[in-house]
Write a structure and sequence with these properties.
Helix content is about 35%, strand content about 20%. By secondary structure, the protein is of the alpha+beta class. The chain has a 7-stranded mixed barrel with strand order 1-2-3-4-5-7-6.
């Protein structure tokens, strides 16, 4: 089984088996698989909210969140859903006061009266407040993924390839007494996340959505400049017509090894809504230490949808076209894909992860709606089948592919 990597490590470790679920459902908001926190209300001091300093994403678990939104906060979210409002959040008997809450999502956006995806920022109004070492987390409603597993699986594949990717866990969420059921809890792409993979976490962080590096990208962090000169330099380098000269110009600007690994992970998981195949759902971090750009995955809620997506697709992203149509880039890409398929991303490995995680969350889904388990079981079975077919298909294509010299 493969597990999250830390720092720049490329090595895979055995994932810890999920803890057994408690058989008794308690009224208080609590961990299913971890000791309860001592009851406490935060009041401006740093509050990790983790027993013995446990990382919130150290191992898969099911949290229980009870969010209370005052009427004024609800009204504000209806008018400006992407603006943080003050709320309280209870978890394991501990109350986090004045937590920032806003709605998130674009194409799959749901309003407050439905099952909205949420951004939770513990330190928006209370300095240094955090939960389990995180100042901000994302609660994703998994609207497009009935298994709730794709983000977890995708993150594992990308980290196995050596590409930084958000880790996830799960939560049963209640807002103002309304039980919304299960959510996927994901790391936010901020300094907490970046510091796990880079020596410095203060570089420019860009977010791409239905656009490319030649466009003005949304800036999520970094310096105060607005000219995006680092992106413009990369956009200029990829236009070099001579292949040898192009890679020479790209080398100081782009982490080529990680980019070819990023492309391999996108194709392996069938992330057709990502950068290389759609110029969507991606982030770019400008690493201050190396000076190179690193592409990061995002929005992985629809994976392994088709088994026969080609090994070498129609590259849509400008950087993908510039790098992966060159003999050197294509060779690196195929080598990485071959390595992943033969080591950490064998079908039985990924399917085993599906089994472990589905066993963890299935009882929680049944709590919310006893009739949902059959649909969940069917969706999980189909996902396992698609994973097996996908890996087998790519393996056959790798064998028949002539590797550029």
């Amino acid at each position: 089984m493969f597990s999250p990597a830390s720092g720049d490590s490329r090595c895979m470790k055995t994932i810890l088996k999920p803890l057994a679920l408690l058989s008794t459902i308690t009224i208080v908001i609590a961990f299913i698989t971890a000791p309860a926190f001592a009851a406490e209300t935060t009041s401006g001091k740093k509050n990790s909210g983790a027993s013995s300093g446990e990382d919130l994403f150290a191992k898969p678990k099911v949290l229980r969140f009870k969010i209370d939104l005052p009427e004024a906060a609800q009204e504000s979210l209806r008018k400006e859903p992407k603006r943080y409002v003050k709320a309280s959040l209870q978890e394991a008997g501990q109350t986090y006061a004045d937590v920032g809450v806003r709605l998130k999502g674009s194409g799959s956006f749901s309003n407050l009266n439905e099952k909205p995806s949420l951004a939770i920022k513990f330190d928006e109004f209370v300095k240094d407040q955090e939960m389990g070492g995180r100042g901000r987390i994302m609660l994703n409603n998994s609207h497009k993924d009935p298994t709730y597993l794709c983000e977890a699986l995708g993150g594992e594949v990308f980290r196995a390839a050596g590409v930084p990717a958000a880790k996830v866990t799960f939560a049963r969420v209640e807002i103002n007494g309304r039980d919304l059921g299960l959510y996927v809890v994901a790391e936010a792409a901020n300094k907490d996340f970046l510091s796990q993979y880079f020596k410095k976490a203060k570089g420019n962080l860009y977010e791409g959505s239905k656009n490319d590096i030649s466009d003005k990208l949304e800036k999520d962090g970094g310096d105060s400049s607005t000219d995006q000169a680092d992106l413009r330099a990369l956009a200029t380098a990829i236009k070099e017509p001579d292949l040898t000269a192009r890679l020479k110009k790209l080398t100081p600007l782009l982490d080529l090894e990680r980019f070819t690994a990023f492309a391999a992970a996108e194709v392996l998981t069938g992330h057709h809504d990502g950068y290389t195949m759609d110029r969507n759902n991606y982030r770019i971090y400008h690493d201050p230490t190396s000076g190179q750009m690193v592409f990061l995955p995002h929005g992985m809620d629809e994976l392994f949808t088709k088994a026969d997506e080609p090994l070498i697709p129609d590259w849509k992203g400008l950087v993908a076209k510039a790098v992966l149509t060159s003999p050197t880039g294509q060779r690196q890409y195929l080598d990485k894909m071959s390595s992943l398929l033969s080591t950490s991303c064998k079908a039985e490995t990924i399917q085993g992860h599906v089994d472990d995680l589905s066993a963890l969350i299935r009882p929680v889904l049944a709590e919310h709606d006893s009739g949902v388990t059959k649909a969940f079981d069917d969706a999980v079975a189909k996902l396992r089948e698609r994973i097996g077919k996908r890996v087998a298909f790519l393996g056959q294509q790798i064998k028949s592919q002539a590797v550029p010299q």
